[in-house]
Specification:
single chain; alpha+beta; 3-stranded antiparallel sheet; two-stranded antiparallel sheet; 10 helices; 43% helix; globular
């Protein structure tokens, strides 16, 4: 988005949300491709819910003309942790060889984990559960069987295929926190949302069992496609800048201690921001050298 496009937005309204430098990163990286109205909406949602895109609490996603604002698991957990009655959350995977029993509390009629012991070898993942604790309230237990998320694991290009265990735990964790604390974030999707059938789980929908009766938080995103797009964006930035290609490898090693191919989507998003900062720093140094050179030439005249 150009500076001319940004000028239509009253940036003073967002002074207590982002600094001018942070706002530039939001415009040019985090919410790249957003219209003025979409950008204003994204920043307003961040402000109203105290969510920080620089900490991967919330994402702006654009598919052609369709906009989606998605709150991450980290964002939901952050909102829960800000509450005085937050007493923690536990999330576990249940494997087919584990001893696992679920009961129902006779007083609260809530699910409760009666027994979970681990046996080695554990076998395949059979389920996942999360327990969200809140002072003055009964624990909320969410249990999801592997069959219920099979469509996500087998979806072409899905992060579930590569990081199944982690994605499964995040999925159940998010639901337990929302169920316990009634977190209803004012996120949004674009005008084309009504063209997507909400009953087709393969259409990038975050499907919540009807028994939970909780609001959906935007659309499940094909993270594999996002990962490729994020890397393409980084490579394009470096190519158009004066930076050495080695800078990306160095940043990955310094900040994540991983191989570039092993980075998650949130880490690649963070890497893109670090590259932006390096490009900005290099640009400022180049401007300083040019000014010094011009000054010296002026002295010679």
């Amino acid at each position: 988005m150009s500076k001319n496009q940004l000028s239509a937005i009253n940036t003073q309204e967002f002074e207590n949300v982002f600094t001018q430098k942070e706002l530039e990163v939001v415009v040019n990286s985090i919410a790249k491709g957003a219209t003025n109205e979409e950008l204003a909406l994204f920043i307003q949602i961040c402000k109203q819910n105290n969510l920080n895109p620089f900490k991967n609490h919330i994402y702006f996603i654009k598919y052609g003309n369709q906009m989606s604002i998605q709150v991450s698991v980290e964002g939901i957990q952050y909102l829960a942790q800000q509450r005085e009655d937050y007493k923690g959350v536990t999330v576990q995977l249940v494997h087919e060889n584990d001893d696992f029993e679920i009961g129902v509390d006779p007083e609260t009629q809530e699910l409760k984990i009666e027994k979970h012991t681990i046996k080695i070898p554990r076998g395949k993942v059979a389920a996942s559960y999360a327990i969200a604790k809140r002072e003055g309230y009964p624990d909320k237990v969410v249990v999801i069987e592997a069959d219920e998320v099979e469509h996500l694991r087998t979806k072409s290009g899905s992060q579930w295929k590569t990081y199944y265990n982690d994605m499964f735990k995040k999925h159940v964790l998010k639901r337990a926190l929302k169920l316990q604390f009634g977190i209803d974030v004012d996120d949004a999707t674009g005008a084309q949302e009504d063209t997507v059938d909400p009953y087709q789980p393969r259409e990038r929908k975050d499907i919540t069992p009807d028994s939970f009766d909780e609001p959906r938080l935007g659309e499940m995103v094909d993270e594999e496609d996002q990962l490729k797009e994020a890397w393409d964006g980084i490579n394009q930035k470096v190519k158009q800048s004066s930076l050495d290609k080695k800078i990306v490898t160095d940043l990955v090693k310094e900040n994540f201690n991983k191989k570039p191919a092993d980075l998650t989507l949130s880490q690649v998003t963070g890497l893109s921001k670090l590259v932006d900062l390096k490009i900005n720093d290099a640009s400022k140094k180049a401007e300083a050298i040019e000014m010094e050179f011009d000054f010296q030439e002026g002295q010679l005249d």
